[in-house]
Amino acid sequence: MQAIRRAFAAAQEGDFAQADAICASLLARDPAYLPALKLGGAVAAELGRLDDAIDMLTRALDKDSPDLQTRAQLGIACRLRADRAGESGDMAAALADYDRALSCDASNADIHYNRGNALLALNRSDAAVASYDAALALRPALAQAWLNRGVALSRRARHDEAIQSLDHAIALDASNVDAWINRANALRWLDRDDEALACYARAMAIAPDTDFLRGTWLHARMTVCEWSGIEDDFALLERKIAAGERSAPPFEALAIASSPSILHAAARTWASARHPERQDLPAIRAREADGRIRVGYFAATLHEHATAHLMAQLFESHDRAAFEVTAFTFGPQTADATRARVMAAFDRVVEIGTRSDVEAAMLARDAGIDIAVDLMGYTRDARPGIFACRAAPVQVAYLGYPGTMGAPYVDYAIVDRIVVPDTQRGDYTEKLVTMPSSYQVNDARRPRPDGVGSREDAGLPRDAFVFCCFNNNFKITPAMFERWMRILREVDRSVLWLMEDNPWAAANLRKEALARGVDAARLVFARRAPLPTHLARHHLADLFLDTLPYNAHTTASDALWMGLPVLTCLGDSFAGRVAASLLTAMGLPELVAATLDAYEASAIAFARNANVLSALRDKLARNLRDAPLFDGAAFARDVETAYRAMHARRIAGLPPDHIAAGEAI
Prior knowledge:
Layout: H1 2-12, H2 16-29, H3 34-46, H4 50-63, H5 68-88, H6 91-104, H7 109-121, H8 125-138, H9 143-155, H10 159-172, H11 177-189, H12 193-206, H13 213-223, H14 230-242, H15 250-253, H16 260-274, E1 293-299, H17 306-317, E2 323-329, H18 337-344, E3 348-351, H19 357-366, E4 371-374, H20 384-388, E5 394-397, E6 412-416, E7 431-435, E8 465-469, H21 478-490, E9 494-499, H22 503-515, E10 523-526, H23 531-536, E11 543-545, H24 554-561, E12 566-569, H25 578-585, E13 592-593, H26 596-608, H27 610-623, H28 632-651, E14 659-660
Parallel strand pairs: 1-2, 1-4, 2-3, 4-5, 5-6, 6-7, 7-14, 8-9, 8-11, 9-10, 11-12, 12-13
Helix pairs in contact: 1-2, 1-3, 2-3, 3-4, 3-5, 4-5, 5-6, 6-7, 7-8, 7-9, 8-9, 9-10, 9-11, 10-11, 11-12, 12-13, 17-18, 17-28, 21-26
C-alpha cells in the first residue's frame, strides 16, 4: 500500500518517471494488481507510451469494467494513439483506436470528427459522412466537420448536398479557403462553371498562395474563356512552378505552360506534396516467372469515355496465352455498351472504387500483378496514391495523362519519338517506352457513322468554308484565338465551329471575336452529343484547326477517323505534339506546321484551294484502310513486346531502362 501511495504522490507532483518506475515494480510482483494497472496506464499515457497505457488500462477494465475514470483514460489513450497513427498514414489502425475510444466516450465530438477523417482517408465516404454527422450533432459549430463532410459527399457524387454542407462551413468561417475551393470543385462537377470561378476567386482573395490554388483558378478561367490579363497570369504561374512552388496541379498546367521542364517541375512538386511514395509498407514480393505475365489496368474510365473508346480493341487483342489481363476499375458502374464490351475483354475485373489506396495496392499484390498500368495519370478521378503504395513490381503510365508523373514509383511511360523526342528524356522521371508508330492506341472496330443532317440543321451556313475545333474550351488560349480570327478575316465566307462546353465560354468568345473585328455570328457552337451523332457531324466541316500548347488528342483521332483533315502546329511538350504524332502515323506530315505562322498560312491556303484540300481528303481516306494509327491489334503486339522487356528486366534483377517497343528483346 505504501508503494502505490508514493506512486500516486509522485504523479500528482508531475514526477511521472518516478510513478512509472514504482508501478512497474509493483506489476512485476503482481501483474493483476488493479491500482498499479490504473495508475500505470495513466502515467504511461502522460509519458507518450500509448501502447503500454492502452494495455494496462484494458487489463484494469477487464477486472473493474464499471470504472468510468479508467474507461475515460483508455478512451483518451486510444484517441491519442489514433491521432498518431493518422499522422503517420496508418488510417486502419487509427480507425480501430477511434472506435475503441468511442466505446469509452461516445459523447466526444472530436473523436467522431477524427474518426470521419480516418474513414475519408480510407475512401469509405458514406461512413465518413455518418461520423461527421455524429460530431455535428454534438457540436453544430464545428466548421471543419461541415467542410470535410462536403468533401466526403462530393466523393460519392452527391454534389448538391456537398455544396449545402460547405455552405454551413462558410457561414461559420467565411475566411476558410478550403471551404471555398471545395465548393468550387463541387460546382464544376455540376457544370456550374461561372459559380465555380467566383468561388475560386474568393479563395484567391483570401489566400492566393494556398497550395495549388493559382493554377486551379487559372484553369477555371480558361474553362469559361475569361481572359482579362490572363497572359501575365500565365507568365507568373510558370515562374512559380519553375521555382518549385506549389502553384498548379500538373493537369491544369498543361494548357498554360509549353516547356517540358516546367511541366516536369509541376508534376514533381505535386507528386511529392500530394502522393509521396509510401515508405512504411512492406516491400513488394515480386513473383517469379511462371507462365503468363499478369498485367493490371487501373482506370476510372472503362465505360462510355474516350479512354475506353481508344483502348477497347487493345484489351480484346491481348495474347491470352502469354498475358493474363485484369481491370482494376474505380469509376461508375454504368450499364452502357462500351463498358459491357470492355469488361468482357478482361480475364477478370476487380472493383476498387470503395477501397483505400493501400487496400487497392494490396489487392493487386495479392493477385500477383507483374505490371500495373495507370490509365489516369493526373486527370479527373485519378488514383496515383495506389501506385505510391507500389501495386506491382513494374508500374507504367499510359494514355490518360500526356506528360511525366514526376514520381519515383512510376517506372515507365509509354510514348513515341514525336511526342517525346530523345532530347527531352531528361524531363521525364520515368524510363521511356517508345512505340514504333503513334503512342495513341485506337480501335479499328469502332463505328464510322454516315453523315446525317445538313449544315443548316447544325446552325452552319450552307455555302461557307467551315473551320472547326471540337477541343475542350480550356485549350483555347488568347494567342491561339488571335490566330483563328486572323484566318477568318482572310478567308471570306468562313466560319469557326467550336464545341460549347458551357454558355459562359461561348459568350466570352463571341465578345473576343468582336474585339478582334470579327462578326460574332461567324462563331458557331456545337453542343455535346452522343458519340455516334458527334462523329457523324464531322462530315459538315472542311478543316479541323488544332490548339496549342495543348493539342487535340482523342478529338483529333475522331476527326481523322471520320475523314476530316486536321491542321496542327508542332509544340514543345507532349500535350502539344500529340496531333503531329497522329498525323505522322496517318501518313499526313503535310498537315503538321512547324510554326504558328506556317499554321496560319496553311489554314488560309487550304481554304482558298479546294483542289488541294480535296486531294488531302482523298489521301486521308486511302490511308485509313491500312494506317498503323487505327490498328489496335498491331498496337497490342508492340506493347506486349514492351511488357515482355519490362518483365524480363525485373526477373533478371535489372533496373528499368528505356525500351524501343516493337523490337525483339
